[in-house]
Amino acid sequence: MKIGVIGGGQLGRMLALAGTPLGMNFAFLDPAPDACAQALGEHIRADYGDQDHLRQLADEVDLVTFEFESVPAETVAFLSQFVPVYPAPSPCASPATAGSRSRCSRTWASPPRNSPTC
Fold first, then answer.
1. 112: which DSSP letter?
2. Rounded to whole angstroms, how far apart are CA atoms 104 and 53?
3. What H or E segment, with its residue span, contains residue 64?
4. Contact status, residue 7 vs residue 69, Cβ threshold 8 Å
5. Quick one: three-class SS letters along 74-111?
6. Which residue among 31, 75, 79, 92 has its CA within the 20 to 30 Å range from the CA of 5?
7. What distance in Å separates the CA atoms of residue 81 and residue 90, rounded to the nearest whole number?
8. At what angle do helices 73-80 and 51-60 cross, to 10 degrees?
9. Which helix (H) or strand (E) holds 5?
10. pTM attached to this predicted model
11. Hey, which residues does 43 pair with through a beta bridge?
């Protein structure tokens, strides 16, 4: 199995160190020329919004994940068209109308009823 990782930093490196003994291979998409995970898999040097290189990554791997939380929603949505992405894109994170963003923020940002507030 070959796993695509958006980001090639320390978490990507640790993921590859854990997965390699299990027979997994890795490809990292990261704009840094010295991404620290590059020694543990293929390094696709490109910006996170570069659709040509995102498509290259999707074509080479069985699934994609990411090693940092602020991956652009457009990147995740684009990749999801071609390859499974984990964690799955949130409907609240994808580009949407102001009304649907407002509904999502009310749904996800509100504490449950009867819960203590800090």
1. P
2. 31
3. strand 63-66
4. no
5. HHHHHHHCCCCECCCCCCCCCCCCHHHHHHHHHHHHCC
6. 92
7. 14
8. 40
9. strand 2-6
10. 0.76
11. 28
Contact between 44 and 57 (Cβ < 8 Å): yes
Print burial letters for 6-22: b (CB count within 10 Å at least 16), e (below 16): bbbbeebbebbeebeee
Measured in residues, the chain has a length of 118
Scanning the structure block, which residue is given the tokens 């290259």?
A: 56
**Contacts made by residues 111-115, CB under 8 angstroms, sequence distance 24+:** none
Q: Which tokens go with 14? A: 């640790």
At 3 the three-state DSSP class reads strand
Cβ neighbours for 116, distance < 8 A, ≥ 6 positions apart = none
H/E stretch holding 51 reads helix 51-60
Query: What are the pLDDT digits (tens) for 56-113?
Result: 999 999 999 999 989 999 999 999 999 999 988 765 554 544 444 444 444 444 444 4
Q: Which two tokens stand for residue 101?
A: 């963003």
